[in-house]
Automatic annotation (TrEMBL):
Molecular-function GO terms, alphabetical: methyltransferase activity
GO biological processes: methylation
EC number: 2.1.1.-
Protein's UniProt keywords contain Methyltransferase: yes
Source organism of the structure: Microbispora maris
Name this protein carries in UniProt: SAM-dependent methyltransferase
Enzyme class: transferase
InterPro entries: SAM-dependent_MTases_sf (IPR029063), SAM_dep_MeTrfase_SAV2177_type (IPR006764)
Keywords, alphabetical: Methyltransferase, Transferase
Protein backbone atom coordinates (compact mmCIF):
# COMPACT_ATOMS: atom_id res chain seq x y z
CA UNK A 1 0.00 0.00 0.00
CA UNK A 2 1.43 3.34 -0.99
CA UNK A 3 -1.19 5.77 0.26
CA UNK A 4 1.28 7.44 2.62
CA UNK A 5 -1.49 7.95 5.16
CA UNK A 6 -3.19 5.05 6.85
CA UNK A 7 -6.19 4.67 9.11
CA UNK A 8 -4.06 4.34 12.24
CA UNK A 9 -3.07 7.99 11.78
CA UNK A 10 -6.67 8.93 12.58
CA UNK A 11 -6.80 6.95 15.84
CA UNK A 12 -8.21 8.64 18.92
CA UNK A 13 -6.50 8.27 22.33
CA UNK A 14 -9.07 5.66 23.46
CA UNK A 15 -8.25 3.46 20.48
CA UNK A 16 -11.39 4.38 18.54
CA UNK A 17 -11.50 6.26 15.28
CA UNK A 18 -13.68 9.32 14.79
CA UNK A 19 -16.92 8.26 13.07
CA UNK A 20 -15.61 4.84 12.07
CA UNK A 21 -16.97 1.47 13.19
CA UNK A 22 -13.80 -0.54 13.65
CA UNK A 23 -15.51 -3.58 15.20
CA UNK A 24 -17.61 -4.56 12.20
CA UNK A 25 -15.58 -6.19 9.43
CA UNK A 26 -15.68 -3.85 6.46
CA UNK A 27 -15.62 -5.09 2.87
CA UNK A 28 -13.42 -2.23 1.60
CA UNK A 29 -10.87 -2.78 4.36
CA UNK A 30 -10.93 -6.59 3.96
CA UNK A 31 -10.14 -6.13 0.27
CA UNK A 32 -7.35 -3.73 1.23
CA UNK A 33 -5.97 -6.48 3.50
CA UNK A 34 -6.11 -9.08 0.71
CA UNK A 35 -4.10 -6.69 -1.45
CA UNK A 36 -1.46 -6.27 1.26
CA UNK A 37 -2.58 -2.78 2.34
CA UNK A 38 -2.46 -1.24 5.80
CA UNK A 39 -5.82 0.51 5.89
CA UNK A 40 -7.57 -2.15 7.96
CA UNK A 41 -8.28 -3.06 11.59
CA UNK A 42 -8.19 -6.25 13.68
CA UNK A 43 -11.86 -7.09 12.94
CA UNK A 44 -11.21 -6.72 9.19
CA UNK A 45 -8.06 -8.83 9.33
CA UNK A 46 -9.70 -11.58 11.42
CA UNK A 47 -12.66 -11.84 9.04
CA UNK A 48 -10.33 -11.73 6.03
CA UNK A 49 -8.15 -14.50 7.48
CA UNK A 50 -11.25 -16.66 7.94
CA UNK A 51 -12.12 -16.10 4.29
CA UNK A 52 -8.56 -16.96 3.24
CA UNK A 53 -8.58 -20.12 5.42
CA UNK A 54 -11.76 -21.30 3.67
CA UNK A 55 -10.60 -20.17 0.22
CA UNK A 56 -6.80 -19.83 -0.07
CA UNK A 57 -7.33 -18.41 -3.58
CA UNK A 58 -8.78 -15.20 -2.08
CA UNK A 59 -5.67 -13.03 -2.35
CA UNK A 60 -5.25 -14.19 -5.94
CA UNK A 61 -8.83 -13.18 -6.63
CA UNK A 62 -8.19 -9.70 -5.24
CA UNK A 63 -4.94 -9.28 -7.20
CA UNK A 64 -6.46 -10.76 -10.35
CA UNK A 65 -9.42 -8.42 -10.08
CA UNK A 66 -7.24 -5.37 -9.50
CA UNK A 67 -5.02 -6.26 -12.46
CA UNK A 68 -8.14 -6.74 -14.62
CA UNK A 69 -9.27 -3.23 -13.63
CA UNK A 70 -5.90 -1.81 -14.70
CA UNK A 71 -5.92 -3.56 -18.08
CA UNK A 72 -9.52 -2.52 -18.75
CA UNK A 73 -8.89 1.14 -17.92
CA UNK A 74 -5.77 1.15 -20.13
CA UNK A 75 -7.84 -0.32 -22.96
CA UNK A 76 -10.69 2.15 -22.47
CA UNK A 77 -8.55 5.28 -22.13
CA UNK A 78 -6.24 4.20 -24.94
CA UNK A 79 -7.67 2.01 -27.70
CA UNK A 80 -11.32 2.83 -27.01
CA UNK A 81 -10.73 6.59 -26.68
CA UNK A 82 -12.79 7.05 -23.52
CA UNK A 83 -12.08 10.28 -21.64
CA UNK A 84 -14.51 10.05 -18.73
CA UNK A 85 -14.93 7.40 -16.05
CA UNK A 86 -17.53 6.83 -13.34
CA UNK A 87 -16.01 4.32 -10.90
CA UNK A 88 -18.71 3.09 -8.51
CA UNK A 89 -17.51 1.01 -5.54
CA UNK A 90 -14.09 2.57 -6.04
CA UNK A 91 -12.47 1.18 -2.89
CA UNK A 92 -9.64 2.48 -0.74
CA UNK A 93 -6.79 4.14 -2.62
CA UNK A 94 -4.04 1.75 -3.60
CA UNK A 95 -1.45 1.47 -6.34
CA UNK A 96 -2.45 2.29 -9.92
CA UNK A 97 -5.75 3.97 -9.14
CA UNK A 98 -8.14 4.49 -12.02
CA UNK A 99 -7.32 8.17 -12.70
CA UNK A 100 -3.59 7.43 -12.70
CA UNK A 101 -3.94 4.57 -15.19
CA UNK A 102 -6.41 6.52 -17.35
CA UNK A 103 -4.38 9.72 -17.34
CA UNK A 104 -1.24 7.85 -18.38
CA UNK A 105 -3.06 6.92 -21.59
CA UNK A 106 -5.02 10.18 -21.91
CA UNK A 107 -3.82 13.11 -19.81
CA UNK A 108 -7.21 14.80 -20.14
CA UNK A 109 -9.19 11.84 -18.75
CA UNK A 110 -11.71 12.75 -16.05
CA UNK A 111 -12.63 10.36 -13.24
CA UNK A 112 -15.34 10.44 -10.58
CA UNK A 113 -14.90 7.91 -7.80
CA UNK A 114 -18.07 6.87 -5.95
CA UNK A 115 -18.30 4.71 -2.84
CA UNK A 116 -20.85 4.31 -0.05
CA UNK A 117 -18.22 3.91 2.65
CA UNK A 118 -17.33 7.14 4.50
CA UNK A 119 -13.83 5.79 5.27
CA UNK A 120 -13.18 5.27 1.59
CA UNK A 121 -14.54 8.74 0.93
CA UNK A 122 -12.22 10.51 3.34
CA UNK A 123 -9.14 8.60 2.21
CA UNK A 124 -10.00 8.95 -1.42
CA UNK A 125 -10.63 12.70 -1.05
CA UNK A 126 -7.21 13.13 0.51
CA UNK A 127 -5.29 10.91 -1.87
CA UNK A 128 -7.15 10.65 -5.15
CA UNK A 129 -8.93 13.94 -5.75
CA UNK A 130 -5.68 15.76 -6.21
CA UNK A 131 -6.37 17.47 -9.51
CA UNK A 132 -9.28 19.23 -11.19
CA UNK A 133 -10.02 16.18 -13.36
CA UNK A 134 -10.69 13.85 -10.41
CA UNK A 135 -13.56 13.91 -7.89
CA UNK A 136 -14.71 11.67 -5.05
CA UNK A 137 -18.40 11.41 -4.21
CA UNK A 138 -20.38 9.54 -1.56
CA UNK A 139 -22.94 7.39 -3.36
CA UNK A 140 -24.58 3.99 -3.39
CA UNK A 141 -24.85 1.76 -6.46
CA UNK A 142 -28.31 0.77 -5.21
CA UNK A 143 -29.37 4.40 -5.77
CA UNK A 144 -28.19 5.10 -9.32
CA UNK A 145 -30.52 8.08 -9.68
CA UNK A 146 -28.73 9.90 -6.86
CA UNK A 147 -25.34 9.21 -8.44
CA UNK A 148 -26.47 10.33 -11.89
CA UNK A 149 -27.90 13.61 -10.58
CA UNK A 150 -25.11 14.35 -8.11
CA UNK A 151 -23.88 17.91 -8.81
CA UNK A 152 -20.20 16.90 -8.56
CA UNK A 153 -20.73 14.01 -10.97
CA UNK A 154 -22.54 16.32 -13.38
CA UNK A 155 -19.93 19.06 -13.05
CA UNK A 156 -17.11 16.76 -14.17
CA UNK A 157 -18.80 14.25 -16.48
CA UNK A 158 -20.84 15.03 -19.58
CA UNK A 159 -23.25 12.11 -19.80
CA UNK A 160 -24.40 13.15 -23.26
CA UNK A 161 -20.99 11.88 -24.42
CA UNK A 162 -19.45 8.38 -24.06
CA UNK A 163 -18.46 7.41 -20.55
CA UNK A 164 -17.11 4.25 -18.93
CA UNK A 165 -19.09 3.10 -15.90
CA UNK A 166 -16.98 0.81 -13.73
CA UNK A 167 -18.73 -1.65 -11.41
CA UNK A 168 -15.66 -3.62 -10.44
CA UNK A 169 -16.02 -6.03 -7.52
CA UNK A 170 -19.06 -4.21 -6.15
CA UNK A 171 -22.23 -5.87 -7.48
CA UNK A 172 -21.54 -9.01 -5.45
CA UNK A 173 -22.27 -6.88 -2.38
CA UNK A 174 -25.83 -6.27 -3.58
CA UNK A 175 -28.31 -9.11 -2.95
CA UNK A 176 -31.06 -9.76 -5.51
CA UNK A 177 -33.77 -8.31 -3.25
CA UNK A 178 -31.95 -4.94 -3.46
CA UNK A 179 -32.33 -5.06 -7.26
CA UNK A 180 -28.77 -4.89 -8.63
CA UNK A 181 -30.12 -5.58 -12.15
CA UNK A 182 -32.46 -2.58 -11.95
CA UNK A 183 -29.60 -0.40 -10.73
CA UNK A 184 -27.35 -1.43 -13.63
CA UNK A 185 -30.19 -0.92 -16.11
CA UNK A 186 -30.69 2.65 -14.81
CA UNK A 187 -26.98 3.38 -15.26
CA UNK A 188 -26.91 1.87 -18.76
CA UNK A 189 -30.03 3.82 -19.75
CA UNK A 190 -28.23 7.04 -18.76
CA UNK A 191 -25.13 6.21 -20.83
CA UNK A 192 -24.71 7.78 -24.27
CA UNK A 193 -24.13 5.46 -27.27
CA UNK A 194 -20.45 4.53 -27.45
CA UNK A 195 -20.27 4.19 -23.65
CA UNK A 196 -18.85 1.16 -21.84
CA UNK A 197 -19.95 -0.83 -18.82
CA UNK A 198 -17.32 -2.78 -16.89
CA UNK A 199 -18.33 -5.48 -14.41
CA UNK A 200 -16.29 -7.90 -12.37
CA UNK A 201 -18.00 -10.26 -9.98
CA UNK A 202 -17.22 -13.18 -7.66
CA UNK A 203 -18.24 -16.51 -9.15
CA UNK A 204 -20.65 -18.82 -7.36
CA UNK A 205 -18.93 -22.14 -6.68
CA UNK A 206 -20.54 -24.48 -4.13
CA UNK A 207 -17.17 -25.43 -2.66
CA UNK A 208 -16.53 -21.77 -1.74
CA UNK A 209 -19.73 -21.32 0.33
CA UNK A 210 -17.82 -21.37 3.65
CA UNK A 211 -15.60 -18.53 2.43
CA UNK A 212 -18.64 -16.28 2.06
CA UNK A 213 -19.74 -16.79 5.68
CA UNK A 214 -17.53 -14.17 7.38
CA UNK A 215 -19.20 -11.54 5.18
CA UNK A 216 -22.51 -12.23 6.93
CA UNK A 217 -21.12 -10.25 9.87
CA UNK A 218 -19.47 -7.59 7.71
CA UNK A 219 -20.99 -4.26 6.64
CA UNK A 220 -22.25 -5.99 3.46
CA UNK A 221 -22.88 -9.65 2.64
CA UNK A 222 -21.21 -11.24 -0.36
CA UNK A 223 -23.45 -12.73 -3.05
CA UNK A 224 -21.46 -14.84 -5.53
CA UNK A 225 -23.29 -15.36 -8.85
CA UNK A 226 -23.12 -17.87 -11.70
CA UNK A 227 -21.85 -17.03 -15.20
CA UNK A 228 -25.42 -16.57 -16.50
CA UNK A 229 -26.38 -14.37 -13.58
CA UNK A 230 -23.36 -12.11 -14.13
CA UNK A 231 -23.92 -12.10 -17.91
CA UNK A 232 -27.41 -10.65 -17.31
CA UNK A 233 -25.79 -7.39 -16.14
CA UNK A 234 -24.74 -6.88 -19.78
CA UNK A 235 -28.25 -7.26 -21.21
CA UNK A 236 -28.68 -4.89 -24.17
CA UNK A 237 -24.92 -4.33 -24.54
CA UNK A 238 -22.41 -5.86 -26.91
CA UNK A 239 -19.57 -7.63 -25.12
CA UNK A 240 -16.08 -6.55 -26.16
CA UNK A 241 -13.86 -9.57 -27.02
CA UNK A 242 -13.02 -11.86 -25.28
CA UNK A 243 -16.44 -11.44 -23.62
CA UNK A 244 -17.30 -12.32 -20.06
CA UNK A 245 -14.42 -14.47 -18.82
CA UNK A 246 -12.34 -15.26 -15.83
CA UNK A 247 -10.66 -11.93 -14.95
CA UNK A 248 -7.21 -13.40 -15.57
CA UNK A 249 -8.25 -14.28 -19.12
CA UNK A 250 -9.47 -10.80 -20.07
CA UNK A 251 -6.77 -9.56 -22.49
CA UNK A 252 -3.90 -10.87 -20.33
CA UNK A 253 -0.75 -8.77 -20.56
CA UNK A 254 2.89 -9.82 -20.39
CA UNK A 255 2.81 -9.87 -16.60
CA UNK A 256 -0.05 -12.36 -16.44
CA UNK A 257 1.42 -14.50 -19.22
CA UNK A 258 5.02 -14.45 -18.03
CA UNK A 259 4.35 -15.24 -14.37
CA UNK A 260 2.23 -18.28 -15.24
CA UNK A 261 -0.37 -17.24 -12.68
CA UNK A 262 -3.20 -19.71 -12.26
CA UNK A 263 -5.90 -18.25 -14.52
CA UNK A 264 -8.66 -20.06 -12.73
CA UNK A 265 -9.67 -17.50 -10.10
CA UNK A 266 -13.37 -17.52 -9.20
CA UNK A 267 -14.10 -14.05 -10.52
CA UNK A 268 -15.70 -13.05 -13.82
CA UNK A 269 -14.95 -9.86 -15.67
CA UNK A 270 -16.28 -8.29 -18.83
CA UNK A 271 -16.71 -5.05 -20.76
CA UNK A 272 -19.86 -4.17 -22.67
CA UNK A 273 -20.37 -1.37 -25.18
CA UNK A 274 -23.63 0.47 -25.78
CA UNK A 275 -24.34 0.84 -29.50
C1 LIG B 1 -13.86 -5.10 -3.18
S1 LIG B 1 -13.85 -3.35 -3.18
C2 LIG B 1 -13.52 -3.03 -4.90
C3 LIG B 1 -12.70 -1.78 -5.12
C4 LIG B 1 -12.33 -1.52 -6.58
N1 LIG B 1 -13.51 -1.33 -7.39
C5 LIG B 1 -11.51 -2.65 -7.15
O1 LIG B 1 -12.08 -3.50 -7.82
O2 LIG B 1 -10.31 -2.70 -6.92
C6 LIG B 1 -15.60 -2.99 -3.11
C7 LIG B 1 -15.93 -1.54 -2.82
O3 LIG B 1 -17.33 -1.36 -3.05
C8 LIG B 1 -17.85 -0.54 -2.05
N2 LIG B 1 -19.29 -0.82 -1.94
C9 LIG B 1 -19.90 -1.89 -1.38
N3 LIG B 1 -21.23 -1.79 -1.51
C10 LIG B 1 -21.46 -0.62 -2.16
C11 LIG B 1 -22.64 0.07 -2.57
N4 LIG B 1 -23.85 -0.44 -2.32
N5 LIG B 1 -22.52 1.25 -3.23
C12 LIG B 1 -21.28 1.78 -3.47
N6 LIG B 1 -20.13 1.19 -3.08
C13 LIG B 1 -20.22 0.01 -2.44
C14 LIG B 1 -17.06 -0.89 -0.81
O4 LIG B 1 -17.11 0.14 0.15
C15 LIG B 1 -15.68 -1.10 -1.39
O5 LIG B 1 -14.95 0.09 -1.38
Amino acid sequence: MTTGRNLASQALPGGGIAGIDIRTPNVARMYDYYLGGKDNFAADREAAERVIAAAPVTREVARGNRAFLGRVVRFLAGEAGIGQFLDIGAGLPTRDNVHQVAQRANAAARVVYVDNDPVVLSHARALLATDERTRVVLGDVRKPGDILTDPEVRSLLDLSRPVAVLLVAVLHFVPDHEDPYGAVRALVDAMAPGSFLVVSHIEHRPELATAAKPYDRANAPVVPRTFDEVARFFDGLELVPPGLVNVRRWRPDELVLSTRLDPDVPCFGGVGVKR
